[in-house]
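Predict structure. Chain length: 69.
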Amino acid sequence: MADKVKVWFDAEADYLEVRFSDDTGFMKETKHDSVMERVDANGHVIGFSILGVSRFRKEKPLEADLLST
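Prediction complete.
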């Protein structure tokens, strides 16, 4: 588990990013159209992003699997 979590929200772009690590990584698609996972060179998930955050409501939360190794 990460010691720190960094969260960025851009209201104008309706974009949220959560990072568990400052390690270099790249974005990778998931099965959910709105969610990308950030993975390191070894394929470990080090964060994720959500585009269109305002579309999701507490009555129906966003669910997505982060599947990288």
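Summary: The CA atoms of residues 23 and 40 lie 7 Å apart.
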